[in-house]
Specification:
The protein is built from 7 helices and 16 strands. With about 325 residues, the protein is of the alpha+beta class. The protein has 2 domains: about 150 residues, HIT-like (HIT family, subunit A, 2-Layer Sandwich), CATH 3.30.428; about 150 residues, HIT family, subunit A. The strands form 3 sheets. Strands 3-4-7-9-8-13-14-12-11-10 form a 10-stranded antiparallel sheet, sandwiched between helices. The longest helix is centred in the middle third of the chain and has 18 residues. The termini are far apart.
Length: about 325
């Protein structure tokens, strides 16, 4: 596997076939009792002396390999480097059919705890500039296994969309000395047009410029730039878990298929070439979770010549989602 940088968009593109062996499909390698079918666990929760509820291990065919250095080099005007990083699977529940919508807030909270622990651990490695978690639910979203799970990647670069977020957040803070995400939350809660639900210190809303129908963001109503440091030991983690479950249950009234992605701050231990960019990181950035449902469309694509298209405006989407009973 190799990473090459597009000099126009400045995004890194992965090329080549992933190494490793495909996971067995039968029996399910993620079910309790089948641990010998997966790589050794990196983390188990509650702990290794108890039957596990959460189990984390390297991906069978990782996109990124943890060994070695990136070895970034020039190829004429281009840049290339080895696909160094981490790619892990987080099994969220030993029960094959117990997904987020069926789990208790305490069970989901333990999943979020695992997220935080793995991000904190990988950010000790100064090679890795960014660590994130994503969840693909449903075959049309690219789900690899039916058993409830998420995936983690740690990379030696910051993904392009995150770079855009960081840049916009820094520029907004430089102009107004306020966090743009905090201002969004305040305005959305004041207007109550696109808010789906508020629970404790967290809110779920359809963003003003939603990229896809029924897109939802979950954000803390208070300011914090880092999911992992915020959620590691916070009692509020159960509130986030409860809100995630309720949002997913609402979405099931629209679509069972979605992408869920955690956006958190980049690794502040990595300073080379980015010290000035991340100088106000703790003040200008704001962690959040983005959920992008996949809704069948009969006509236009979501993206038209690099411009997102959604046939459902966020105000209507939020109203429809509010009307769906998450406890039904």
């Amino acid at each position: 596997m190799e990473l090459r940088k597009d000099p126009i968009t400045r995004s890194w593109v992965m090329l080549g076939e992933a190494d490793g062996q495909p996971a067995p499909s039968e029996p399910c390698p993620f079910c309790r009792g089948n641990e010998s079918l997966t790589p050794p666990a990196i983390l188990t929760l509650p702990d290794k002396s108890s039957p596990w509820q959460i189990r984390v291990f390297p991906h069978f065919r990782p996109m990124y390999r943890i060994e070695g250095e990136p070895g970034r080099s020039a190829d004429g005007i281009y840049d290339r480097m080895r696909a160094v990083g981490a790619h892990e699977i987080i099994v969220e529940n030993p029960d094959h059919n117990r997904h987020i919508s069926d789990s208790s807030p305490e069970e989901i909270s333990l999943v979020l705890k695992a997220f935080a622990l793995r991000i904190l651990d990988l950010k000790q490695d100064r090679r890795f500039k960014y660590v994130t978690i994503f969840r693909n639910r449903g075959e049309r979203a690219g789900e690899e296994w039916a058993h409830p799970h998420s995936q983690l990647t740690a990379t030696t670069f910051v993904p392009r969309r995150i770079v855009y977020e960081l840049r916009a957040s820094r520029e907004y803070f430089a102009e107004k000395e306020r966090c743009v995400f905090c201002d969004i939350v305040r305005q959305e809660e004041r207007q109550q047009k696109r808010v789906v639900e508020t629970l404790g210190g967290f809110t779920a809303l359809c963003p003003y410029a939603s990229r896809v129908p029924y897109e939802i963001w979950i954000l803390p109503r208070y300011h914090h730039h880092s999911f992992e440091s915020d959620m590691n030991e916070s009692p509020a983690r159960v509130d986030v878990a409860r809100l995630i479950r309720r949002v997913v249950r609402r979405l099931q009234g629209i679509s069972e298929t979605y992408h869920m992605v955690l956006h958190t701050a980049p690794n502040a231990l990595v300073r080379a070439g980015v010290a000035e960019s991340w100088k106000t990181l703790a003040e200008d950035y704001h962690w959040h979770i983005e959920i992008l449902p996949i809704v069948p469309q009969s006509a236009k694509s979501y993206v038209l010549k690099e411009v997102y298209y959604s046939p459902v405006n966020p105000e209507s989407a939020a109203q429809q989602l509010r009307e769906i009973n998450p406890e039904g």
